[in-house]
Amino acid sequence: MVYGGLFLPEFNHRWIATLREKALAGAQVELLFGDPEGEHITERGDAEGIGPAMANKILNALAFYKDLRDLDNVGIYYHDTILYNSIYRFDAEMLINTHLYGTPAAYAPVLHLRRLGGGDLFDSYVASFNRVLGKKRAVWPEH
């Protein structure tokens, strides 16, 4: 769950191929991007001093993901919510990119969480992701 997350496909040339391989092996992949036409994207772009470039970053990022469109167990969606943290979940591990007002996500701290018995921090972030997932709309509605 990100607004753009452009750094993932740009800095890891295997990112999309890896997601595709995982999906073909049966993994469910859910990707949530900020809605480039959403009010919160406009606010974030203004806060970071880049204005409409924030929406363009999202569209640029999505161009990398087009090769996943044909897979039934890959969902690529827009959300228009305030993004307090970007959430990257991989089974029982998670990266939380904390956001700092006026600071690009690439310059904000990242927390590495693991699901442990007896704790609820990991599950709190999963619940947050799922609440946003419940408000999604398809990026490519014809799929």
Ordered list of secondary-structure elements with their pairings:
Elements: H1 7-11, H2 15-24, E1 29-34, H3 39-47, H4 53-64, E2 74-79, E3 85-90, E4 93-98, E5 110-114, H5 121-133, E6 137-138
Parallel strand pairs: 1-2
Antiparallel strand pairs: 2-6, 3-4, 4-5
Structure, described:
There is one protein chain. By secondary structure, this protein is α+β, with helices and mostly antiparallel strands. It has 5 helices and 6 strands, in the order H-H-E-H-H-E-E-E-E-H-E. The strands form 2 sheets. It has a 3-stranded mixed beta sheet, covered by helices on one side. It is globular, with a radius of gyration of 15 Å. It starts with 6 loop residues before the first helix and ends in a 5-residue tail after the last strand. The model has no long low-confidence stretch (mean pLDDT 91).
Question: Which key phrases capture this entry?
Answer:
143 residues, alpha+beta, 3-stranded mixed β-sheet, 3-stranded antiparallel β-sheet, 5 helices, 6 strands, 34% helix, 22% strand
Radius of gyration: 15 Å
Provide a count of the helices: 5
Cross-sheet strand order for the largest sheet: 1-2-6
Q: pLDDT average, as an integer? A: 91
Q: Could you tell me the strand content as a percent range?
A: 15-25%
Low-pLDDT parts are none
Spatial gap, N to C terminus: 20 Å
Shape: globular
Classification by helices and strands = alpha+beta
Secondary-structure element series: HHEHHEEEEHE
Share in helix: 25-40%
- Tell how many strands the DSSP assignment holds: 6
